[in-house]
Amino acid sequence: MSRKILVVEDDEATSDYIAKGLEENGYLVDRASDGRDGLFHATDGDYAAVVLDRMLPAMDGLAVLAAMRAASIETPVLILSALGSTDDRVKGLKAGSDDYLVKPFAFSELLARLDALQRRGSSVREPVVTSLTCGDLTMDLLTHRAERAGRRIELQPREFRLLECLLRHRDNVVTRTMMLEEVWDYHFDPGTNVIDVHISRLRKKIDERSDVPLVHTVRGVGYMLSETA
Amino acid sequence: MNKRVSVRLPRSQTARFVLLCLLFTVLITGPSLLFVYNRTDALIHDRIVSRIDDRQRNLLFGYRTAGIQGLVGSIDNEVQTGVVEGGVILLTDASGKRMAGNVLSWPPTLREPTSWREMRLYTQGQRRPELYAVRVAHFRSGHWLLFGTNLEARERMREALAEALLAAFLMAIPAGLIAGLILHRYTDRRVRAIGEIAVRIAAGDVGVRLDTSGEGEAYNQLGGAINAMLARIEELVGGLRVVTDALAHDLRSPLMRIQVGLERAARECDDDSAREAFSSISKEIDGMMRMISATLEIGRTEAGIGRENFSDFQLGDLIKDLCEMYQPVIEESGFEIDAKQNGDLPFFGNRELIGQAVSNLIDNALKYGGCCRIEVGADASDSEFRLWVADNGPGIPENSRDDAMKKYGRLEQARTLEGSGLGLSLVRAVARLHGGDLSLENNHPGLRAVMRLPKRANALAANGNGS
């Protein structure tokens, strides 16, 4: 799988910041500083994902996205926007972007989302998954049963969805906002530590009677389900 | 709000309008039909008079040339040749003895000359008396002459005319009623259209326009004026959108750079206390960002931006989801949450914003609700949807409820707690975006925050979206 990311961003400081962070995490980065140049790159190269600023000189971010989709370039696109209102977000997602991140953002959030985007892109070609596992934890998506080391774990429907979300992103960080979006389909910030309390309950059910913890807190970013800490 | 006006008045207004139309129809057709009757009658009368005049001339021609004998001759002649057919004629001497003509005897009521008299007479060979217009002349020789023409045809004509005109009049009544109803329907439709537009404008949808292509100059003028007003509002809202976008961009971009700088500095710095400081600056920036976002969101919502993202969803599901989302946090804080939603509550609106509004209310109840139970619910009456969050805390005194909903309107007793003071004003803006409002009520004890969203505005928004 290609590990090349295209960053289309006119603000140099932000662009540097993203490129540097991505390179530190093993990505190759191409950069474009305006919309036209960005579109040119996107039609040309074989990128794993595109990070696209919404407000760009020469060609607006949404126009670039529309042009890409019109030319059937299905590279996953993550839109970066300084416009944070909910209707802007929905507009961005409707225009064909795969994810939407509001400035200012933490790099870890961007990275988690980019990783998730690529997994989502590749999983489309995989056959339909009916069960998910992590270590001795298994989840049957058809019967809605979860077991740890052969012992049944009783889960509320939402806890099931939450665990499913973590399992699908196994060994990768899932941020709080990602969980809010995937499990509840809301994009606003609930303000209180809603997700943390959900996770702590889930953690209790999963890790309580086991020596190997599976649910890990990634400080300042989110949570990760993994066999190795 | 104007239930009394909108339900009771139109019905009687319709009746009044239709009755007025009927009255006008009667007032106009009645006299005009009478006029037609009179004119027609006068025309017939004139023709009869001129016919009698002609006969008089013919008869007197005989008298002038040959005296009474000549007159008798011409009368006999008329009777014999049948010229007199359909008419009457009688000549008597001074004593009243019949000398010639087709009338059997002199009518006893006729005692003096007259130019027009209507009476029933028997003529020779007729069994029943018929109506005639007669003229009587008295000669110097003492002879009396009576002649006239049959009026039966005129009578039949009159009857037919009266019948026809009455029929026309009777037909005018339903015509008037129907015309009144149609006219009323038409005006009612135009006025209703304006009213519906007004409801949608009140809900912030300024993209709607009235149809000014129909007939009715006054309505088109009114529609044009309203459309011009709407265009102006839309322009202002568009301006607001540009300003908030620019503001968001210009504020977020430097904040982004500060965050980037902070993150880099924190990474390259070994000093733990400095790192602590960086992280607290970063948190402050987050808080500031949240505040800016909320302010911009409220401004945009108040201006009706966000209607593009209306969709169909179930209010009950939304309440259930949010309660589920908050349940652990609420229980952790020592509260209980009680979700009350009954069945099918299909709603057309901005799910994200409604969700955020209810979430803000739950957050408020957690912060200020004291103890120990939070009720979150949704239901619907005939006219409105209701979404509420109620707590058993100290509540808000009635006189400061308005202040609580104002932007940055934090109540004095709440100042010590963390919060932006934007929560309730966003909730109110969201309620207004959906044509409703937020009301803060007494929960005996505690606060009950209710978003009331009228069904009418909801249906209009849904229709507006569909067309």
Key words describing this protein structure:
heterodimer, A: 229 residues, alpha/beta, five-stranded parallel β-sheet, four-stranded antiparallel β-sheet, 41% helix, B: 467 residues, alpha+beta, Beta-Lactamase, Helix Hairpins, Heat Shock Protein 90, five-stranded mixed β-sheet, 9 helices, 59% helix, rod-shaped, disordered N terminus
Q: What's the main sheet of chain A like?
A: 5 strands, parallel
Write out the CATH superfamily name of the largest domain in chain B.
Histidine kinase-like ATPase, C-terminal domain
Q: Note the main sheet of chain B.
A: 5 strands, antiparallel
Helicity level of chain A: 40-55%
Distance between the termini of chain B: 27 Å
- The count of strands of chain A amounts to 12
Indicate the radius of gyration of chain A in whole angstroms. 19 Å
Spans of chain B of 5+ residues with little confidence (pLDDT < 50)? 1-10
Strand neighbour order, sheet with most strands of chain A: 2-1-3-4-5
CATH class of the largest domain in chain B: Alpha Beta
Please report the distance between the alpha carbons of the first and last residues of chain A: 25 Å
